Predict the 3D structure of the following.
Amino acid sequence: MRFLSASLLITLLLFSYSADAFAAGQAVKPASSDKLNRQIDTWLKGLGAEPGFKKLLTAKREIMPIGPGTHGWVVHFLNGNKTTGYMIVHALPNDRGYHLTEYGLGEHPLFAMSTLHDGLARLGLTAADNGNKPLLKERLYINPLLAVWHIHTTEGTSLYLDAYTAEELPIGAEQWASTAEAGESSYLLTGVTSLASSPKLERAVRGQSFDLYARLPWLTGQPLRIKDSKMLAGKLSGKAELRLTSEWFDGSWLAVAPLNGIHVWTGGIAYIQIEQEEGTRYFLYDEVKRHASVYE
């Protein structure tokens, strides 16, 4: 995903949800980790025919919390010492099970600690200050198009780093709080859930790879009027070069990424595919309708 400032300065940013405070290296598990792991197995089996996902079934899992009040977790899958994929999972209300919010493949997924450490080093920070007190970190996930690390420095200041690249965002606590407050009132749980007995991937449509910046239709044209996910799948089948954009922080940040695939699950639930330098991501088509525009 690429992000541009209002002056069109291109820089890498994020894709992401909201998070519990945690100490570095600690993984707080849900009340019923066995139940969650069984549900993850079910989803992975549903994805088994897709390249790259079958190996996640036998991978080691790290389950870490996100979002105060959202009852969510990020799950990292590791084969040996190498991270190979991830999921974002949220609890359904009234203890009714779990919701698959986002998933993907790649060595540097959302909220990777190695990426965070590199980002802190670029800022001249380490995991501890001179008094060996650890920096406090939170994973913040408002929606799949906005996720960050919130860093509380030992000087009492706050930094916000992209959850994928650990690039610092030029915002403060007040600006983040207003954005987060607006996002919390429209939290979506409309994807694949544990309420479906045997959910599986029924159709995968892949578009072609292309140079994202060969054309800049988000600057020169109008967004497509996408009626539904079937129309989007038709565009991809026809080899259309689709670009997804999403603006944040009063237009000071513009996210741009190639939209080059779609997964359709049981019941017609659609997750769109985004290719990033850090890996491949899948998140709800419904979130695209609410927070993004698509250009051809």
Summary: Residues 201-295 form one domain. Residues 2-28 have pLDDT under 50 and may be disordered. The first strand starts at residue 2 and ends at 5. The CA atoms of residues 28 and 64 lie 5 Å apart.
